[in-house]
Every structure is written in C-alpha cells, then in structure tokens.
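Rather than argue in generalities, we reproduce a single protein record, letters for residues, whole numbers for local backbone shapes, just as it appears below:
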Amino acid sequence: MNGLFIVNQEIGHNAHKVARLSEEFKKASVDIEVFVNNGTLASIKDNNVKINLPKADFVIYMDKDIYLARLLEKAGYHLFNRADFIKLCDDKMLTFIACADHDIPMPTTISGPLVYYGLRETHLSFLKKVEGELGYPMVVKKVYGSLGEGVYLVNNYDELAKLYAEICRNPIVFQKYISSSVGKSIRVLIIDGKVFGAFFRKNARDFRSNYGENASGEIIPDMKKYVDFAEKINQLFNIEYAGLDLLDNDGELMLCEMNSNAFFEEFENITRLNVAKAVVDMIIRKVNLKNEQK
C-alpha cells in the first residue's frame, strides 16, 4: 500500500503532523511521499484532467485548495478528508448553515453581504441591524481562517464600522459574544466516526482560546457531555477526521467551528493519546475495505 501527502507551500504546523503520520505509516509498512501544492500538480488539458502525481492508494490532503482536491477526486484519488468536507469546514458560514435545524446549539450568527466596488454609506446601515441583534462586545470573523487569525472582537459601533471598512471585501460573519467562554474552548477530536478524545483550551490574555503562545490546555476528567454533543455532529456528517471546537455557554455547549485538518501535536501532548496511529489505522482499514469491494 502507498499514499501521498499533499501540503501547502507554507507547511507550518503541518510539518509535525506529516512527521508523526509518516512515523506510524512506516511502522505499518506503508510507503508515503510528500508533495507540495505549488500549482503544478494538476491541470485541465485538452478537456481532460491531468495529474502530475504518482498513482496511490490514498491521499492525505493537508491543504485547503478545494480546486486541486476536486481535480484529484475526479481523477480517482481517494482523499482523506473528502473535498466537500474540507470545503464545509473551511467556510465557517457553510458550517453553520449545514448544522442549522439539527438541534446543534450555535452562537447567533449573521452573514455579512459582500462589498464589490467600494464601501458606501448605504452599506453601513446593515451594521445598525447587526448591532441591534448581537449587541456588544461582538465577534467578527473572516469566513476563511485558522489558528485564531481573522477573528476580531469589537466593543462599540465605531470599532465595528472601522473593521468592516477594512475587511468588507472578504466573506465575513458576525456572531454573538459568549462571555462565559471568553478565552476558553473544548477541542474534541473525531477519528473514524468516533469521538477519540478531548481537552480544555485556555488563554488568559486573549478572547481566542487557541491564539498565540499564551494558549494552554488540560485534560477533561469527564467527557460524557462533550461526547454526546460531538456525536450529534458526527452523525450528521459521517466524519473521518476532524477537530470540533465547542464553547460552554453557562453549561450549554455550543459549536464554535469544525476543522478538517486539525493539528494534533498539542492534543497528543496533553491527552497522551496516539492520534497519528488512530488516523493511520483508519486509513488502512478504509483503503483495504474499498479494495475488497472492487
């Protein structure tokens, strides 16, 4: 059996993930090659998909380039995670739309209209409606972003209008501020359709629990309510691998976001669970099952 890693040109935190998974694949006698998505891996030529990669039993896709992911799937590659699931998680508003009407509590969320040609006074009237619905403080997020980047806290209308003027050409969402969860969240990891583990995240110096060097984590002694909550989401999407970030709103759990390419260095260090081996075991099992069904 052989597989490929596809990573972004800015490999960043994925370097540790690649190293750990490669270690566990080697133990399982699975050959792995790493390829950087530099724009040369796939194209459409003469009305056909052309892939500049070796054949492989599977691809671990660690980028957010949905176009390449879909080209690979169209060419017959088996991706972990699936392109549609990567897109669902990467777009925060799509995540909330998909989870709506399924008894999954979430902060009140408003999608910002796109501004194409320049901000006008008429655009700012929308902010008054957002202000009336959400109040202050208010969380504003770029739809695309990770590791706390593109997530802002505004405390009054002047701050909101200034920020909107800066980022209004991006897809953004406005969300209710959950004061009881400031600087805190729960990361739940799902592997192969089951809750694998969870831990608390804390940041004493920022409202974003996962942002910067001040973030820390600790083991959760009783995971039952987090498992029950995560299972509702898992059943909705049939998750192969994802990290769910949950908020505690005075005892009521809420979904903050889903991550299809969740880093697990911190998770392994805190929980002492072997995430890499569980992911490798899942991939081998699924590939073998697929081959048996051919």
In short: The first helix runs from residue 14 to 27.
